[in-house]
Design brief:
Number of helices: 6
GO cellular component, one term: cytosol
Strand content: 15-25%
Subcellular location: Cytoplasm
Cofactor: FAD
Number of strands: 16
Radius of gyration: 19 Å
Pathway: Cell wall biogenesis; peptidoglycan biosynthesis
EC number: 1.3.1.98
Distance between the termini: 29 Å
Helix content: 25-40%
Shape: globular
Length: 289
């Protein structure tokens, strides 16, 4: 199950980054537990990787063990309660379409988010004025000692795009969401398709990116601030601030993680100079820069 020196660029949406020293892609909770036990026995760090859509991995790669959750994809529907329990590796868009096909409302907004359930629970992913924290019933967490714990939303200290799980050594294995069943599947599919179209109309999907790079400050949209300082289209190496949406950085071909990292800092500096606001990255940076 363990592989050495595995390239990570193809496993991140930015399509950049060096190799993992060790890599595992468990298919069951037991395999996940075994991977963690091995890492702890070797006394090496562990990095959890979902869809790789909100990450910037260093060109030098990552030491220790990288665990991909992409094969943890159980999905169980409870028609009596309108609840669905999903594995951490389930892609959000795929779950949104599954729920729409059943006529279950409440997840249409997630169709355009290129992440997994595990990452969404950890970072409180959201779009269209909705977020994961509003529909989460409970999540099953794997603790560093290999035991499982069930947590309710109140225990996760949810705020905008963050939770108590962020930066911790507790890993999401499953999550249960509360939806509203009983609607016409055709109607729910139409709303879901409309959300997807809105994202495609306003955000660049034609080149690799990580999604939104910066959190929105309280008073302004990050993309608007970046646009005001004239950085749309600005490029460092193969990394470019997107013309369609300035809160996106694109890999225009041949970009390195260092190119993207430098462009992020350049944007921060320019916005701070003009607006006295420090944009906080939403993208998580892993490894040495």
């Amino acid at each position: 199950m363990l592989k050495a020196n595995v390239p990570l660029a193809s496993l991140t949406s930015f399509r950049v980054g060096g190799p993992a020293e060790w890599y595992a892609a468990p298919r069951t909770t037991e395999e996940l537990q075994a991977s963690l036990e091995w890492a702890h026995a070797q006394d090496i760090p562990v990095t959890m990787l979902g869809a790789g859509s909100n990450l910037l991995v260093s060109d030098a790669g990552l030491p220790g063990l990288v665990i991909s959750t992409r094969h943890l994809r159980l999905t169980e529907f409870d028609d009596a309660t309108g609840q669905v329990t999903v594995g951490a590796g389930e892609p959000l868009p795929r779950l949104a379409w599954k729920l729409a096909d059943r006529g279950w409302q409440g997840f249409e907004w997630a169709v355009g988010i290129p992440g997994t359930v595990g990452g969404a629970v950890v970072m409180n992913a959201g779009a269209h004025n909705s977020s994961i924290s509003e529909i989460l019933v409970k999540t099953t967490i794997l603790l560093p000692d290999g035991t499982l714990q069930v947590l309710k939303p109140a225990e996760l200290q949810y705020e905008y795009r963050t939770s108590a799980l962020q930066g911790s050594s507790r890993y999401v294995t499953y999550a249960t969401f509360q939806l509203q069943p009983g609607a016409d599947p055709t109607a729910v599919n139409a709303v879901t398709a409309n959300h997807k179209q809105q994202r495609q109309n306003t955000q660049p999907y034609h080149l690799p990116s990580c999604g939104s790079v910066f959190r929105n400050p309280d008073a302004y949209k990050a993309g608007w601030l970046i646009e005001q300082v004239g950085l749309k289209g600005h490029q460092i190496g193969g990394a470019q601030v997107a013309q369609r949406h300035a809160n996106f950085i694109l890999n225009c071909g041949g970009a390195t993680a260092s190119d993207i990292f430098e462009l992020i800092h350049h944007v921060q500096q320019r916005v701070h100079q003009e607006w006295s606001l420090l944009l906080e990255p939403e993208v998580k940076m892993l490894g040495e820069f």
